Amino acid sequence: MLLSLSIKDFVIVDELALDFAAGFTVLTGETGAGKSIILDALGLALGDRSEGAQIVREGCERADISARFALDGRGDLAQWLADNELTGDDDEILLRRVIDKNGRSKSLINGQQATLAQLKQLGDALIDIHGQHAHQSLSRADTQRALLDAYAGADALVDAVAGHWQQWQSARRARRDAEQNAQQTQNERERLDWQIQDVAALAIQPGEWEMLNQNHDRLANAAELLQSAQMAVDALSEMDGSCLSILAAVHNRLGKLAHLDPRLEEVQALLTSVDVELSEAVHGLRDYASHVDDDPRQLEDMARRLDALMSMARKYRCQPQELLERLEDWQQQRSALDAAADLAALTQAERAAEDAYRQAAGKLGAARRKAAGELGRRVAQEMQTLAMSGARFDIALTELDSPSAHGLEDVEYLVATNAGTRLQPLGKIASGGELSRISLALQVAISQVARVPTLIFDEVDVGIGGRVAEVVGRKLKALGQHYQVLCVTHLPQVASCGDQHWQVSKDVKKNQTLSRIRVLDAQERVAEVARMLGGVEITDATRHHAAEMLALNAAPGA
Predict the structure, then answer these.
(1) Which of 207, 342, 344, 514 is the most exposed place for a label (fewest CB within 10 A)?
(2) What digits encode the pLDDT tens for the residues 153-180?
């Protein structure tokens, strides 16, 4: 249930804080006072697309809208919040939308950053809004199909059918492309085969180019390396006055004097360490010199190998060290071409995708057929109470000539507005007023099976009046016994049925027009209903009539 709505700096609203109640709440006011603006703000909090910076009140930095809901034991929503790491208070959900003057939008759920898609998904599970122009699209096939699917609770099946359709079409395109491009594919395979064989013949090893360059440089400079190693050994150990002989003499002399001054012992220890390390260095140099290769033939082999790699790299316009990567890429392309050209496998995949689609579409069709009969009966019953006595309503499901992303059947609403006339497509025979009433009958019928706890009707009573308007008001009041219902209305017959009554008005403050909302008490409700009943001048008779309407609709069983 919607608990509260907070709006700040939105269009002509400076600041509003509204607390909602259960039951049936009506929202009335003069034309242009901002009734629909309130619902527009709520729609943004529920994830509707923003129209940009123009929704921010003149002279303000941003519009800020927050809607607070009670979870009401909805375990599915609690699980969704947990799965998306958006959990807040145990029993409440807070949706917030902030839109700045540059049109940038920020969405939050329970104070945490969320995507607009997440806001929309959660909003759709919390509130169902029936717009004032819903009847204008009722003649369209997609609208009729969507209403039936919503009534059937088949949203998951609709998504599954659309997904399987896309997979089937993708598989079909792959098979057709393979058939149409067979020669081109074969040419490409031959080109790749030649390139793969050309480079593979070199049997390149990982890191070979770097290792060859390093070893080639070492062999090319083997004489200098050997000479330098021997010179180092001589200087450290072999020649007269070598480092090790001088170090030994110093160590021996100081050793004889250490008993005279114990502080020399530390120096002696350091000299000992240096002697050990120098000796190890000499040993290492001798071992290195004994293993230095000076093989002209090996050097020539390496040079030829480097030249072969360089030539191949120039041929394919890459660096020598990239040849192995290029080879692996060609091999992957070759495998992909094999798969793309395997008509048997592609045909099998297409058939499997088609089978999956038809299975899902069959389940959707069964759900539609079941729902069509039930919804048709419900709408026909509702129409009888809306001054359409004898009218009939039916939903026809016709098998399509070819499958579609929406399923295997076409959905068409048929209506006979008068007794004894034949059923015809809704858009061909219904007048504007009849279409409005049929739309309301549909919305009431669908709402009776709605899972969302809050239903909002935005001037869906356009085009009706008199006794029919009274029936509509009582229907909405009856819905309020099972759901939280909010209705924006211009009809006094509907307004008088509300359990709560809000009035929207405009106020001019500092040369700015602002929208205001207040809850009406009993006397104020009489005055507001009288205003809706009367003309320019409201008489005592009009006020008396308004009071009678309110009293009649407040009575038990009204």
Answers:
(1) 344
(2) 898 999 999 999 999 999 999 888 877 7
At 68-121, the pLDDT tens digits run 999 887 888 888 898 998 988 778 899 999 999 888 899 999 999 999 999 998
| pLDDT on residue 550 | 92
DSSP letter assigned to residue 48? P
CA-to-CA distance for 496 and 480, rounded, in angstroms?
14
DSSP element (H, E) containing 505: strand 500-509
DSSP output for 88-149: -STTEEEEEEEEETTS-EEEEETTEEE-HHHHHHHHHHHEEEE-TTGGGGTTSHHHHHHHHH
| CB 342 within 8 Å of CB 334 | no
pTM comes to 0.60
Name the 3-class secondary structure at 482. coil
User: What pLDDT, in 10s, does the model give residues 269-316?
Assistant: 888 888 888 888 888 878 877 766 666 777 777 788 888 899 999 999
Name the percent of the chain in helix, strand, coil, to the closest 5.
55, 20, 25
Q: In this structure, are residues 502 and 519 in contact, taking their beta carbons and an 8 Å threshold?
A: yes
Give dist(CA 36, CA 249) in Å, integer.
105
Q: Minimal CA–CA distance to 204: which of 294, 298, 319? A: 319
Six-digit token string for 143: 């609208």
Residue 484 to residues 288, 418, 455, 500: CA-CA distances in angstroms?
A: 91, 34, 6, 11
Secondary structure (3-state) at 399: strand
Residue 557 has pLDDT above 60, yes or no: no
Q: What is the rounded distance in angstroms from the CA atom of residue 145 to the CA atom of residue 150? A: 9
Nearest to 382 by CA among 478, 482, 519: 478
- DSSP result, 10-34: ETTEEEEEEE--SSEEEEEESTTSS
- For residues 498 and 26, the answer to whether their CB atoms sit within 8 Å is yes
Number of alpha helices (DSSP H) and beta strands (DSSP E) in the chain: 19, 15
Q: Is 480 exposed, middle or buried (0-12, 13-18, 19+ CB in 10 A)?
A: buried
8 A C-beta contact, residue 470 and residue 170: no
